[in-house]
Amino acid sequence: MKRNFTWLAVALVVFSGGASASEYIFRDLMANTLPSPGCAAEAEAIAKATKPYNINNYSKRFCQTQGYGWYVSEVKDNGKAVCEDCTGADAGKKQCHVEDVVVTCKRLKPGTAGLIPGKS
User: Fold this and answer.
1) Residue 9 above 80 pLDDT?
2) CA-angle at 97, arms to 92 and 101, nearest 5°
3) Which structural domain range is residue 89 located in?
4) Is there a contact between 93 and 39 (Cβ–Cβ < 8 Å)?
5) Considering its fold, how many domains does the chain have in total?
6) How far apart are CA 98 and CA 96, in angstroms?
7) CA-to-CA distance for 106 and 50, rounded, in angstroms?
8) Residue 56: how many CB atoms within 10 A of its CB?
9) What is the residue range of the signal peptide feature (predicted)?
10) What is the pLDDT of residue 53?
11) C-beta of residue 71 within 8 angstroms of C-beta of residue 106
12) Is the pTM of this model over 0.90?
């Protein structure tokens, strides 16, 4: 009985195929964020625009605009803050956004995740 089990285990190891690794498609994007709502002093407006939460949130949006299945692989460059003067009652204050945020997006390459029957 032990011998049969051993031969069965050896046969399974020899004839079992390794799991194929998933392949990805990568795409680099460069985009700008929207200005933060409201006007503030320049230092405060830059701090609001360059918050890590805002960069991550907009990075996710940038990748999602590519279509279904795209998501953020990494943020390569956080870009630079650009400010504009406010007019009217908020004269002397600034409204800032971030330009040239570089994001690497990825998605599964079609047919590599074992979703097609008979293909490995």
Assistant:
1) no
2) 155
3) 22-108
4) yes
5) 1
6) 7
7) 24
8) 13
9) 1-21
10) 94
11) yes
12) no
- Angle at alpha carbon of residue 10, lines to 6 and 16, rounded to 5°: 140
Q: Pick from 81, 37, 75, 69: which is nearest to 56 by CA?
A: 75
Residue range 37-65: average pLDDT?
94
Q: Could you tell me if residue 88 is inside a domain?
A: yes
Which residues have C-beta within 8 Å of that of residue 18, sequence separation ≥ 6? none
In-domain check, residue 2 = no
Tell me the residue ranges of DSSP E strands in 8-117: 24-31, 71-77, 80-85, 94-99, 101-108
pLDDT at 6: 72
Domain-located, residue 65: yes
Decide if 48 contacts 40 (C-beta within 8 A): yes
What is the residue whose two structure tokens read 């997006």?
Answer: 105
Q: Is residue 62 part of a domain?
A: yes
pLDDT, position 114 = 63
DSSP class of residue 18 equals P
